[in-house]
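Q: Here's a chain of 988 amino acids. Please give me its 3D structure as tokens.
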Amino acid sequence: METGLTFTAWLKRKRREQGLTQEILAGLAGCSTPYLKKIEAGQRQPTRQVVVALLDALQVPKDAQPTYIALAFASPPPGAAEPLTPLIAPQTDFVGRQAELAQMRQQWAQVQQGHARIVLVSGEPGVGKTRLAHEFITHVAHSGAAVLRGGCYEYEATTPYLPFVEALRAYVRTQPATLLRQRLGPTAPEIARLAPEIEARLGPLAPNPTLPPNDERLRLFDNIARFLASVAGESGLLVFLDDLHWADQATFALLHYLLRNLTGERLLVVATYREADLARGHPLADALVTWHRERIATRIALDRLSEQETGTLLATLFDQTRVSDEFIAAIYRETEGNPFFIEEVVKSLIEAGQVYREGEGWGRKAIAELTLPRSIQEAVGRRLARLSEPCADALHIAATLGKTSAFVELAAVSQLDEETLLDALDEASAAQLLRPEGTDSFAFTHDKIRETLVEELNPVRRRRLHQRIGEALEKLYAAQLEAHAADLAYHFVESRDWGRGLAYSKQAAAKAEGLFAHDEAIKYLGLARECAQALGDREQEALVVEALGDVYAIRRPASLAVEHYTAALVLAQSAAKRAVLKARIGDVYAVIGDERGVEFLQAAERELDPETQRGEMALTLAHLGRFQHYLGQHRRAIELLEQAYALAEPLDDTATLRTIFGHLAGAYLHLARYKESADYGRRNLLLGQRKNHPLATLIGLGSLSLSALYTGPWPTALEIINRLRVLAETTGHRYMLAWSHIEDAVAQHGLGEFSAARRSAQEATDQAQRAGDVRGAALFDYVHVLIETDLGCDERAGVYVDQALAAANASNDILLHWASRWAAAYRHVQREEWPEAVRRLDEAVTRLVGTHHRLGPVHYGPTHAEAYLGLGNVAEAARLNEAHLALAREAESPHYEALALRVQGQIRAAQGRAEEAEAAFAAAIAIHEPSGGRLELGRALYHRARLRRDLGRSDAARADLARARDLFAACGAPRDLRRADTLLAHPW
């Protein structure tokens, strides 16, 4: 080192040699740019912590750093403010948590095998949760893995997904554009909702197509999951979430989704929380139960340090080998081993002059003369009391702003000039109350410091400070108020500025809804309602309560949507608005099939003006039609839906027409009028193409694929199903994606591809559960029954039967009732349990009495006749089968016509009408051959072989049986294969 070189001169030269700007170096060192500028200008004496950070950023070897540290403190720069004496070593060695750290490293090793997990570190405030997490983060980062981190904060406005927003924005800001583009891929438009910097880095992004809110939320979650999987890659990803007990509901919803859908990724979530803050009903308490049940969570509870560990920590703080036993005992007695309390007591003693520097070491007063704080709050409070007035004012502003405060916000709120404010922040940093965060922000070194600052403000001063902050932020962000609506709403509501609190709370709610954070939207709408009530503004209160109903209609439970719409109904000041609200209540009930909705829809029908409220009237009639559909009154449903269409057609409103076309397709489908159903599917398809509306296209494809399943052949149905699945995946529509998979399972089962059918059925159930589609998941059980039965897995099939019947018995849904009973009967027929099969299908028939429903009989008709035949009641079997055969032909459903023909052949054989029996089998085989349906083709051949054997036509019988056996083997149908083998082995 050159003689006479000052630290500031060396620093400036070294920075320039490495091609770093002041902004970049400040960011690397974690201090503010203004602070670094003043250091280089000789106007600020840096703290030891900042000097070490600068040396690390400049890549000065550790063994060379003491020389530069000594140079930095050799003499203050000319004109520099007198620095506070550094209290204690800011970066302490890791004390007393080696076992816990080893446990976390073990979890990381498990994650590296492709098993995503969450580690939850709990303990009281100040016990060292975050410190342990940071030590572990250092270990993981050195392994080459990616690390994302974010925190949750108390006292602040709730920003939806806040810890993930922090983590994603930091990642986006720090990654090279090329790598960022590669990692994001097609997820960029969705991730940009939480990290808008993406567009600044990568350029404008084309938004994804609009979907219903719940589907958009699922798409957002799915894209975040895919992005995190991309970041995890082969090296792994650690996501650190600090203070999870303060997280918003949206964060918990997203975290649940990630842990359930990234189980095979190298992902570890580490979260800290305070056990004492988990009151009954807290979402984290419920989550802990779920995560432990699913065996993906490990909880590490941190206790306080022992007296011996307290001594080790004290020695570390004072940078000494050891401290006296009596001092350890005194500190331990007051702090009981809480690490943060220990540090705060030591700092308090130093600032009070009771512990002081003696040359290179430390001295202290006698133990009897030491005045020790008796609580963390008292320790922090003593230190705060010794601050200058400007520093205390700056800290109170910072505490009210949040855990982290941008300098530009502090400057906007503070009444200090910039130089005085910087001095105040330097004082707070030197006292280790604040630390630089990024390039131009400051964060509290511990939440307890911030909590103490907030709590010591009296209510009047606190309200005034919130008002000051709100007005300052309003001016500062005048060009982007919407982006800061949540903060503005929080500060103005806290200051009781009800007018501005109302306006910004509504904006914050709208922003939360835009991110599908329904619980946060509800919170802000609740604040808006309080403001409207305080202002006595009934009109605004009515609008807010209606908006709450709209959110609950999406989020559920439906009862809360009805409750808020009903409250809005009381507040509504016009008959037209009351009619609309009644229609909304009816709509909510219609979605869940609750017949209480009929009364409200009928009232809305009477009260709506068909001239001025055509759209509302059209939807009201459509939902009335939907109720009739649920009840099996499909013809009446069609009448109402056609009336709705006549009103809606001139308006050309996409959402209304999409709904009407979809309901009409469903009504015709359940009448087994597949051509008309497909026609309305095509109308939705054309509507979607004309209006560039993917949801209409999806619903249209869904209608077409169902019609194709029932009319065949299977390969044609699969073509449409594949189109449906691709579009559902592209748009992120989880509900339609689930249905595409179950339709694929039905088609694959029809083709005899049982393994593929099982995979698709399981994927459908998984997707339905993720989408919250309870009805779909229950209905899919019947498909599982068919597949597992034909695979010979009777126990698994039995479990699905029980689930399907339980869901049906808890519902009035016609479809669930007949499908569950058909599935149960199908299993009984294959097991040759004829009385049970007859009983279940008789129940299905009884349930459909008085309805227009014909879809069920087309499906279960042949099974019903076969069950009676197995019971020995040939006459009833013949009567039923003739009716079902005529119905299948009328519906133009070849597959089910072929099933009825095969059963007709069995009945004719039992009646001794061999020629008619053979003709029926031949007709069934002729239909199955081109459809590709191997299982049912094999069954038709098997029964014809039995007939031919009995007629003495052994060669023809053996040929049929051999072919049937090959088909059963190819399908993997063990029960049918055993029957064929038994018949082959029987004496001919």
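Q: Can you summarize the key feature?
A: The longest strand covers residues 267-273.
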